[in-house]
Structure formats: C-alpha cells, structure tokens
Amino acid sequence: MSVAEVFETVDKNKDGKISLDEFAEAMRAFNLSITSEELENMFRVLDMDGDGQIDADEFVLGLELENVNVETTLKQAFDSYDMNGVGKISASDIHFVLNRQGEKHTMEECVVMVQAVDADGDGFIDFEKFKTMMMV
C-alpha cells in the first residue's frame, strides 16, 4: 500500500487534510495503548506548517523522516487483534477488541466484518485480509 493510499484512508472527510481527530482515530486503530499526549506530539511533528492539519505533502515527508513502515504498523495492529497468536483473527477477537476500545458492536456485526474480507471463506482474517479490511 502506498503512502498516498494510507493518507486517503486516514482522511475520512476527503478534504485533502488530516485533522487531529482523524489522525487519532487512525492511530488508535493501530495502537490501543497510545496516549493523547503521544498522539498530539506525533501530530505536531507531521503538521510541519503548524496550521493544525496535515496535508498530503506533510504526511509523505513526515513518514519518510520518521521512517515509519506502514506494513510494520499494520502488523502490530493485527497482532493486537490476534488474541491467541495463531496468525489469524476471528469475529470474536474483533468483537472483544472493539468493545474493549469502547466501540459497541454486536457479534453479528463482527461476523459481517470478517465475511467482508474473507475471500477464501475460512471464517478468519489472516494478515493479508487484515490489510485489506483496514484500508476499506
């Protein structure tokens, strides 16, 4: 996945800029334990012109400067959902993690999430499927 595609995914309202709220939502999906202070510090580093938003150029340059590897970040997020460390995520894993984050989803909704990216129909999400799911 390209940095531009990641930017577009984080820019939820598609205004060409990432707000602190959009940034925080994306980062919390990858790191459940990140503090508000850490988020704000990271945001300030990326917001190079200090206008309170991150544009595409700042995002690309910031990621290059910080040497952030999207694949590594996604793998860390995947591992936080892979409750038993077997390399795949079940609907119950997703249900548990999302509800722990305060996002109330039914088990049925989590099953639908799995089914949406479960191309081989095994009922689980492996890392490749997870990357697809996170970028939707």
Number of helices: 8
Which structural class do the helices and strands define? Answer: mainly alpha
Rg measurement, Å? 16 Å
Shape: elongated
* Sheet with most strands: strand arrangement: 1-2
CATH homologous superfamily of the largest domain?
EF-hand
Secondary-structure element pattern, one letter each: HEHHEHHHHH
Number of strands: 2
Strand content: under 5%
Give the biggest sheet: 2 strands, antiparallel
User: What gap, in angstroms, lies between the N and C termini?
Assistant: 12 Å
What is the CATH architecture descriptor of the largest domain? Orthogonal Bundle
Q: How helix-rich are the residues, as a percent range?
A: 55-70%
Q: Low-confidence stretches at least 5 residues in length (pLDDT < 50)?
A: none
Examine the coordinates and then state which fold CATH places here, giving the name of the CATH topology of the largest domain.
Recoverin, domain 1
Number of domains: 2
Protein name: Probable calcium-binding protein CML32
InterPro entries: EF-hand-dom_pair (IPR011992), EF_Hand_1_Ca_BS (IPR018247), EF_hand_dom (IPR002048), EF_hand_pair_protein_CML-like (IPR039647)
Domain EF-hand: 1-33, 34-69, 71-104, 105-136
Organism: Camelina sativa
